[in-house]
Amino acid sequence: MLDQWQTAGFSDKQRAMLDFLNKVSQTPGEVREEDVELLRKTGIREEAILDGLVVCFAFDVINRIANAMDFEVWTAEDFASRARLEPRGSERYGFRA
Questions:
Q1: pTM higher than 0.90
Q2: Contacting residues for 66 by C-beta, under 8 A, at least 6 apart
Q3: Which helix (H) or strand (E) covers residue 48, if one does?
Q4: What are the C-alpha distances in Å from 83 to residues 56, 66, 77?
Q5: Residue 91 belongs to a domain
Q6: Which CATH number does the domain housing residue 8 bear?
Q7: Is residue 48, in this structure, part of any structural domain at all?
Q8: Distance of CA 71 to the CA centre of its chain
């Protein structure tokens, strides 16, 4: 659904927030006070705007780190098969109790 957020069945408030967060994430240099004012006019509270920005920031940072480190994205099947093979807890890092 989030891959197609522009055409998914979100409310006007949700779509306004997603439009704004997309702009913040994709073209941060183009974000203006008017963009935030549009959210306010849509009825989105200041706290919700800040919450959205914090979540967007967290995902952007995680994605940038993952891209820089060339992280592999596991499928559900990968998780299931590797869960049986991976050492548990501190053993993973070579520590033994």
A1: no
A2: none
A3: helix 46-68
A4: 29, 21, 10
A5: no
A6: 1.20.1290.10
A7: yes
A8: 16
Digit-by-digit pLDDT tens for the chain (97 residues) are 456 777 788 899 999 999 999 999 999 999 999 999 999 999 999 999 999 999 999 999 998 998 898 888 778 888 777 766 555 555 555 545 4
Number of domains composing the chain: 1
Q: 95 lies in a domain?
A: no
53 within 8 A of 22, measured Cβ to Cβ: no
Phi-psi region of 11 (alpha: psi -120 to 50; beta: other; left: phi over 0): beta
In-domain check, residue 40: yes
How far apart, in Å, are the Cα atoms of 7 and each of 13, 15, 17? 14, 9, 14
Q: How many CB atoms lie within 10 A of CB 16?
A: 19
Domain extent for 35: 2-71
Q: Are 16 and 39 in contact (CB under 8 A)?
A: yes
